[in-house]
Amino acid sequence: MTFTLRIPGPGLFLGLVTILLACALPHNALAQQENRLLRIAVHPHQGFTRVNLSFQSPPDYTLRVLPGRVRLEVRGADSPSFKKLRALNDKRLAGITTTEVRGVLSVSIPLRVADPGVQVVSCANPSVLSLDIGPGVKRAARVDIAPGREPILSGTERFVRDFDADPGGVPFAPTDGKVLKGILPEGEALLFQQGESLLYRDRAEEAVNVFSMFTNKATAPKALACYRLGEALERLGRHQDALSYFRQGEGLWPQYLEQSPELLQPYSDALARTGNFPAARAMLLRLMERYLGTPYQAELLNRLADLTERNGQKEAALAMYRSVVVYSAGSPAAGRARLKLADRELFTLSRDRYRELLAKYQAVYQEPGDPASRDEALFKMTLLLSLYASPKEALETVVTYDRRYPRGIFSTIIKKMREEILLPVYQETAAAGNDQGLVQLALDNREYLARCFADPGFAPRVSQAFEKTGATAKELELFGYLQQKNWAAGSAPFLMARMVDDAVALGNVPLAEATARDFLARFPRDPNLGRVREQLGRLAFERGDLPGAAAQLAFLGGKGARAQLPESDYYLGKALAAAKDHGGAVRSLSRFTTAAKRDNPFLPDGYFTLATALAAGKDYQRALAACQVGGSIASGEMSGQFLYQTGELQLQLGEVRQARASWDKAAGLGGTWGRLASEALNDLNWRMKIAGQLP
Q: How confident is the model at residue 184, as a pLDDT?
């Protein structure tokens, strides 16, 4: 059952009578007024049909869902016959008939579908009653949000339902200074005023400490202190203690409530919160009578509606909110009432209808009103989009809100929503292969990536995007931030390993070495351990610390070990060759030359060092083969070096003619190795001449 109340214009006592009737009398007391059903409009939608019933004044109704039909009973109303609607052509409704018996108008709607959903939709105009009938409405009995948004719902629904927004009312009024000076010395009066200043600035806990100093004073100051303690404790949520102090104050100085009626507001809150709703309602009505015809009239009706709804009388509260919307349009109180009306639909919508509710919140936000209501409306717009809209639209809305109100009352929950919505945005962006978009997403939202790290592939995929877009420096800076976060701990080894790679690529040796050693200490068994040690080996090699390089890379000689960086076996082979470990050098360089690509700049020197190590072990045949392969890929000065070495190896194998041919070819190339080859060739010719072996 529902009804709507009028708020009188200034100076009209009739409004107060209406309010008193609404709150104090049984519901059917209002049903005696004449009403009329003026118009019925039927609007088919996908999944449901909407029936708009336009009355002369707000209806007092009961809705019944019966087998095969929906029946609406409106007390104190009549209507035309609406004969044309009896044979309605709708796939869900089989017609609409109206009958009147003993002052009760019955609107009967036979149904073509079994067990449909039925929902009453709140409108800004309380004289219009809208019924949605059909399977689409039944689906909305559950929260029909976009797939994957369940964590957002579970993280916000309880908060939003429990959120206690300020319902409005009479503002705080300090005690008259003359009254204080009449009952307290000047210094104590000033102290009491400081306590009231704290209370005005919402520093209730500090105010309690001040007012407690006056509880041992004479009757009048003690009474004032008790009233203010009750007010402060009520703000702190200590309702029972607040009620106790209010009653003490009233017992000591009951007439003061007539001098400062605004105290009835927190007093009534304390009564309601401690379970005495009838006394709370009576006290609030007493306050409303004092402010009849003022702008606070609508604010106080909102407050009464809030108390009434918390007492379980939702329909009565709904009627009061509608009255504020209609008869106090454009006021902050109307904005708060419209918010309350819209909130009734917040967690009952289906995905195809959320835009209707979004428009209601937008209207509250766009109209002038108090900042708290506009902030709340914007938050709920953001919440709706995060639950129902596409991931990118939802993220844009959440980010916009976060920028506007980074420290607002909803900021913490907005940040959690942002974390949740980033995951589907990341998944969409990655699936589309948008590497630049992934990079920007990670950089713009680095503080909110906690949920994304629940996906083990997130960090590698983002790193791949950084690599493809050439944003190495940005990756290094971002991963340096992320690896310190507890929520990224599972990916910290990967992040740090990439930091080492990036620092090496950028030539930041101190950072690369510091990060690598930190990695070795923290993750000694991580799969990325080998790669990090390879980078340390490379850095040692590049600064000429060959023993250090050999120590870091020694693990590559173990069974089953395999270098992740192509040059690691080259660095190890060179270090071992310098240490005269020719066998180890041969093994490392053999692995390198086998695995390296032909365009690897270290490959020619790898073959040459391999040949040198083989020759040192007197394996001249394999050394010669290595020289010949290396010579085939070498160019410039190094070609002469290979030819010179080839000649020496051929001479060791007794292939004199071949050696002379190699040196002769090298001499023709000129350069240092050409001169050495020419000298070796002359020396060989002289020795052969002495031995009589020249032709």
A: 92
Separation CA 19–CA 462 (nearest Å)? 62
* CA–CA separation, 472 and 505 (whole Å): 8
Tell me which residue has tokens 């070819």. 665
pLDDT at 250: 94
- Residue listed under structure tokens 């992320």: 482
Q: What is the pLDDT of residues 231-252, one digit of tens each?
A: 999 999 999 999 999 999 999 9
Closest CA to 534 of 510, 509, 559, 500: 500
Angstrom distance (rounded) from CA 592 to CA 172? 82
Residue 10 is predicted with a pLDDT of 36
Q: What's the predicted TM-score (pTM) here?
A: 0.71
- Give residue 7's pLDDT: 41
Nearest alpha-carbon partner for 469 in 504, 443, 497 = 443
Pick from 421, 370, 449: nearest CA to 169: 370
Cα–Cα distance measured from residue 446 to residue 433, given in angstroms and rounded to the nearest whole number? 20
Nearest CA among 38, 105, 39, 107 for reference residue 77:
105
Environment class of 186 (CB within 10 Å of its CB; exposed 0-12, middle 13-18, buried 19+): exposed
> Are the beta carbons of 229 and 211 closer than 8 angstroms?
yes
Q: Which pLDDT score, from 0 to 100, does residue 312 have?
A: 83
Estimate the crossing angle of helix 529-542 against helix 546-553, to 10 degrees. 170
pLDDT of the residue at 265: 93
Q: Residues with Cβ < 8 Å from 385, sequence gap 6 or more?
A: 358, 393, 394, 397, 398
For residue 512, the one-letter residue type is A
pLDDT at residue number 693: 58
What percent helix, strand, coil does the chain show, rounded to 5? Answer: 65, 10, 25
Residue pair 123/341 in contact (Cβ under 8 Å)? The answer is no
Supply the mean pLDDT for the chain. Answer: 88
Q: How far is CA 346 from CA 168, 307, 353, in A?
A: 21, 20, 11
Assign 97 to helix, strand or coil: strand
Distance between CA atoms of residues 27 and 130, nearest Å: 21
What's phi and psi for 51, nearest 5 deg? -115, 115
Q: What are phi and psi of 161, to 5 degrees?
A: -65, -35
Torsion-angle region of residue 218: left (phi > 0), alpha (psi -120 to 50) or beta?
beta
DSSP helix/strand/coil, 107: strand
Q: What is the 3-state secondary structure (H, E, C) of 663-686?
A: HHHHHHHCHHHHHHHHHHHHHHHH
Residue 21: pLDDT over 50: no
For 225-259, the three-class secondary structure string (H helix, E strand, C coil) is HHHHHHHHHHHCCCHHHHHHHHHHHHHHCCCHHHH
CB atoms inside a 10 Å sphere around CB 598? 7
Please say whether the beta carbons of 228 and 193 come within 8 A. no
Q: Residue 413 corresponds to which tokens in the numbers above?
A: 């929950």
Find, among 180, 231, 179, the residue nearest to 205 by Cα. Answer: 231
Specify the higher pLDDT residue, 353 or 557.
557
Measured between its terminal Cα atoms, the distance across the chain in Å is: 126
pLDDT, one tens digit per residue, over 424-451 is 999 999 999 999 999 999 999 999 999 9
Q: Which of 246, 301, 238 is nearest to 273 (CA)?
A: 238
Question: Residue 475: CA atoms inside 13 Å, Cβ hemisphere, count?
Answer: 31
Lookup result for tokens 């850095």 = 539
